[in-house]
Write a structure and sequence with these properties.
- It is built from 3 helices and 6 strands.
- The longest helix is centred in the N-terminal third of the chain and has 35 residues.
- It starts with a helix and ends with a strand.
- It has a 6-stranded mixed β-sheet.
- It is of the alpha+beta class and 150 residues long.
- It has 2 domains: 74 residues; 59 residues, no CATH class.
Length: 150
């Protein structure tokens, strides 16, 4: 099971790293565009363009900061061992899907099976926390029965 956890964890790390790369690229492009923008006789246009590039840089810095927080959260998750109670880092199998309780990274595929990476702070993540095999809960009029927790 820890091999499965490691694969899911690695996919989450890759998801975050792609977000970080995209944000860093956006920052570089905005800075480059801002530096290449030359002041013309239309001073307001120049100032507006620079302000827009600064907003773009700030937006990308925010995304980079959020991605860094996700990476820190992932680094705290152990991929070893199997618990009986759902906690951060657990793989939870239900009758309505399989979940990896870590960060919200969407759908992941390992060995032909689909898993949904969910944050403990998400609505379904909060409901999964603390559950054990045989427990059930309802979300959006759908009943989930825990088949296994690892």
């Amino acid at each position: 099971m820890s091999d499965l956890k490691k694969k899911l964890h690695d996919q989450c790390v890759n998801y975050v790293r792609k977000s970080m790369d995209a944000a860093e690229l956006g920052i570089k492009e905005a800075q480059k565009a801002s530096n290449e923008d030359t002041k013309s006789s239309a001073g307001d246009k120049y100032e507006t363009g620079r302000a827009m590039m600064q907003q773009e840089t700030n937006r990308n810095l925010t995304q980079l900061n959020e991605a860094n927080k996700l990476l820190v959260a992932l680094n705290r998750i152990s991929t070893n061992g199997a618990g009986t109670k759902a906690e951060t880092g657990s793989v939870i199998m239900t009758n309505n899907g399989n979940f990896y309780l870590a960060i919200s990274a969407g759908s992941l595929s390992v060995d032909g099976k689909t898993y949904f990476a969910v944050s403990p702070a998400s609505p379904i993540g909060a409901l999964l926390l603390g559950k054990t095999t045989g427990d059930s809960f309802s979300l959006n009029s759908k009943l989930y029965v825990i088949q296994s927790v690892n």
